[in-house]
Amino acid sequence: MTTTSFTLLLGGSLAVTDRLRALTGGSRVIAADGGMRHAESLGVTPELWVGDFDSSDTGLIARFPTVERRSYPAAKAVTDGEIAVAEAIARGATRLICVGALGGERSDHALQHYLNALGLVEDGYEVVLTSGEEEAYPFAADSELALEMPKGALFSVLGFTTLEGLTIRNARYPLQDFSLPFGSSRTISNIAEGPISVSLSRGRAILLARPYDLSGA
């Protein structure tokens, strides 16, 4: 199946790294409101800019006069980020790279990005959330997530439910067919021995990676 990748520019914090450039390279781009400020640092021009524009000042809007803008009322039932995701899917996206999805001033938005991503993975989409320095990968039951990681880099597996059959490979603290209670910190702060893989038979989880953090090496 052909993979169609979309980068979605969201309003959280962003550090532009070589790994981020490689992740987003060649993808189509949609901006959500104030996430457009990341377009300049990434050197991209989105094909669409959506939102209520309460986070976009006149200066930012003036710098992108040719980008199609689709405005929504501030009193709406979904976030600007979710609108951007829906637009990408309508345009054929199978892979969604959510840039600026982690951190920032609105922790409620960041948490909602996690929850939305979990639902998208269950619907068959490939999703990564990134701040440039951190990357979050939701993964579904009965599938394997393989991830290139530098040896010594930190990562954690966050269970959003009780997890059954959790397996972590090529890490300092591997697990095999493990049952992780909901809320347990057992899988926080693991250390990659190089490329890692994770899988589970039941539950909902996100792998949060810090590829540039070698403090656990």
UniProtKB/TrEMBL annotation:
Gene3D superfamilies: Thiamin pyrophosphokinase, catalytic domain. It comes from the Bacteria. Keywords: ATP-binding, Kinase, Nucleotide-binding, Transferase. GO terms for molecular function: ATP binding; kinase activity; thiamine binding; thiamine diphosphokinase activity. One of its GO terms (biological process) is thiamine metabolic process. SUPFAM superfamilies: Thiamin pyrophosphokinase, catalytic domain. The keyword Metal-binding does not apply. It holds the Pfam family TPK_B1_binding. InterPro entries: Thi_PPkinase (IPR006282), Thiamin_PyroPKinase_B1-bd (IPR007373), TPK (IPR053149), TPK_catalytic (IPR007371), TPK_catalytic_sf (IPR036759). This is Thiamine diphosphokinase. It is an enzyme of class 2 (transferase). Its EC number is 2.7.6.2. Residues 141-206 form the Thiamin pyrophosphokinase thiamin-binding domain. The keyword Transport does not apply.
